[in-house]
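Lab manual, section 2.4: Encoding a predicted structure.

Procedure: take the sequence of the chain (83 residues), apply the prediction step described in section 2.3, and record the output as structure tokens. A sample record is shown.
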Amino acid sequence: MDPSLRWIPRVTVPLRAGDCTFHSGYTGHMALPNRTDEARLAHVVIYMDEATHYSGTEHVVTDPLGLAVGDRLDGDAFPRPWA
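Recorded output:
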């Protein structure tokens, strides 16, 4: 969606069924359409500072949580792996 990505060289990484990739959330990436009847699963881990607060920006993770601007991102949806 970022027009500036149009001019950056692309790298193709072929993956087989069951393979996975790890990359930064800032990495422009895409996949071809899933043409099977099976769901394509994704697991996403986003690390952030423990003092992060909700900004009000729409996001698939925070939208259903009923957060108010300034609420701390805490609780079951935001586990602390070291706690």
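Check your result against the sample. Residues 50 and 83 are 11 Å apart (CA to CA).
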